[in-house]
Each structure stands twice: as structure tokens, then as C-alpha cells.
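Subject: Predicted fold for ATP-binding protein, 429 residues

User T.R. writes:
Posting the sequence so we have a shared reference for the thread.
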Amino acid sequence: MSGIVLRALGVKNFGPFKDGVYFTTDTDTSKKEFWNNTFSEGDLTFNRISYIFGANGSGKSNFCKAILQIQSLISISPLLSANNPQLLELSPLKITTGDLDRHFLFEASSKDVPSNYMIEILMDGTTYTYSFSIKNGVVISEVLSKKKMRTTVILNRTSPNFNSIQLKSELSSFTPNISVVKERALCLSMAAFLNNPFASKLVDAINSISVVNMASLNGLRNISPDNFNENIRQKCLNVLRDVDPTLNDLSVEFTEEKVDTRKLPLEINDLEGRELIVKNVRVNVQSKHSVYDKDSIVDQIHLPFLKYESSGTIKILGILPIIFQALDSGSPVIIDELENGLHPTMLKLILGLFNSPQTNPMNAQLICTTHALALAENSVRRDQVWVISKDSHGCSSMKRISEYPGTRTTDNIAEKYLSNAFGSIPSFY
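User M.O. replies:
I've generated the C-alpha cells; pasting them so everyone works from the same file.
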């Protein structure tokens, strides 16, 4: 049983990926390796965890940003269709043309080539492949297909003009409203915005993929009422008690304030009155500790969590709600620099949570970039490990270990990586 499976992700002419990269969580069934850290959906088998290695500046963070770019372009399409520049200036939106175009910078011709994005998701036993291309902020093409027994294209767009859009199956009911799709807006996004049930479900599935950069995980801004219910609070508390034995309890208070409200004029009668409400949620965490007199507890004290806990403990509380929410819902998590600020025992705990069918019955996936080679030393399949490298022209490529010739199940992946067997480590003189 699973929630959402991220099968594949691909980008081209995005960031350092000039020639395109393709990432998949599908297992390489041609390799005879152990299967204890995989899961199956029908005839398909997937890795629970994928590790991405690469030197500093190789493109690991940009790979993580690729899914954020897809989510952002999907989310802002209704704003772009509203034809209201003031909306794009709202904090925390602040959307600029530069946010829409992230083409490869180190080749002059790249600015004249569309950026291509692709995401493939398994949902309810059906694989949905969604791709689109954008140039100078304008949608050049957009395709959505589904595959269960056979492949069917249910959205096909061949130009910026809405007249080029063809819809079938679950999206056919959106056809009467197709004129709201402007040249800078994605059709799937607009269908979801107008409450097409299927489009809304698919967009929600794509947006359910969490992306976290551990290096910039300062404070507790990732904690929200959605991912910190009582069940998750208790799970986090159990882990933190092992980190800090004096910790007895956590109290979390959320304060929501409205930042601004703007109308969304979308040239269609039944959309009059729609509003964009921008809100800011503040979180206040207090920790409850025991005060001892020798071996006896004599008092309890409440402390501001951010002020008195270590940066590592704060990071633990910052990431655990996201992880536990993913485990509960079966949603994928992408973590950049997983090891940043975390003790090896905490890394072991996190990996164990995803690898165990008992703690991960919904088959949530973890995709992480890391420099911690120890993660790839024991009981890791070759098709779980990816390597990103960058050439002398600033172009990054990506490949998994199982695709390199001459690799064996018995190979020590960490040793081979450090010996530059995969050509990903720069030479220093």
C-alpha cells in the first residue's frame, strides 16, 4: 500500500543541466541484488531511498530545486492568468521573470532554447507523466499522459495559444473554460484552479512532495498546523527525549496573520469575487524540562526552544514533522544535504524510518543529496546511488551507479567513489 510514488523527474536547459538529466526511483530489475529496501506496486518495484552524491558545486542543490521549480510554475499560473502585476509584487510572492526562466547560463544560445520539465507520478495504480516547456516565461508546450494498461494522452498543447490545447478523459470537462489559459499559464494549473476534480488531485499530489535544504533549515518555519498534529508531536517528542533526557514535553502555538488580500480577475463570470489571501503563520515552541536535586526531580521549567536548544536539536525538530507527515501519508521527501547538522545516529534513525515496512507502511520515499559516503556502504543497491558531475563548461550530468560498466554487487561504493571511478571528483593540485 502506498500514497504517491515519485517515479521520475527530468529537466533540460534548467540550471546547470543544459543537456538534460533523468532521475528515476524504478529499480533496475536486471541487477541481482537484495530487495529489502524496495517496495512494489503491481508489477512495478521502487527504491524506498535514493542517494545523490556529487562534489561541491556539481548541481545537487539544483536537482532539488527542479521539483520546486515545477511546483512554483504550477502554483503561480492562476496569478499569471489574472493579468494583475500587483499580485506578483505581494510579499511573500515576489515573482519575477527571472523566476520563470532558469535556463543554462554558460552557453549563449541557451537563452533562446525552451526549458523542459517532466515529472512522473504513480497515483491510484496509474502512472501520470506531466511535461511542459517554457521560454521567456511563455508556455511553449504541455503534455499529460496516463498509463495503466496502455498510454493515453489526456492533455496536449502545442503552442502558447489556448486554441492549440486538446483535452480528453478526466480533463474534458474543462474544455468550456479553456480560454482562461493564457500564454504564461499552465493548462493543468488552471483546470485545478477551476476545481476540476482530477486536475486538483494531480496538482495536490505534485505539491505534496516536500523539499528541504538542511543547510538553510534555520529555526522552525517548516513546522505548520498541517504537519504537527498531536500524533506527530508525540513522535517528535519521543525522539527528542533521547537527544535531551531532561526534556519532558513540547508545547507549540501557531499564530496566523493575514498579510494581504487581492482580487483575481480571470475574465470568466463564475470567477468574480475570487481572492488571493496571503497569510503568515508564526510558530512558538516551548520545551518543558525537569529540574533535579541530585537524583530527584524537584521542579519543572518551561524554556523557549529556539533560545536554549542546540542548533542540531533545532534542526531535528525542524525536519522530523516533515518526515513523520510523509510516513503517515505516503508522500515523497527530497532533502538536500541530509547530514548537515545531524549526528550519524540521527541519520541512521531517519533512514531506518523509511526502510522499515513497520514505520513506513505507506511506502513514502526519501531522496537525499549527501556527502556522507557512509550512507552508501551497507545494504545499498547500486540503482539507489546517483552521481552528479559537472564538466569544464559548467554542464552537469547525472547517472546512477548501476549504469556504470564494471560495477558489482560486492563493490564498496564509497571507496570507488573516492577513487574517482565515477568521474565526479575534481582534481586538486
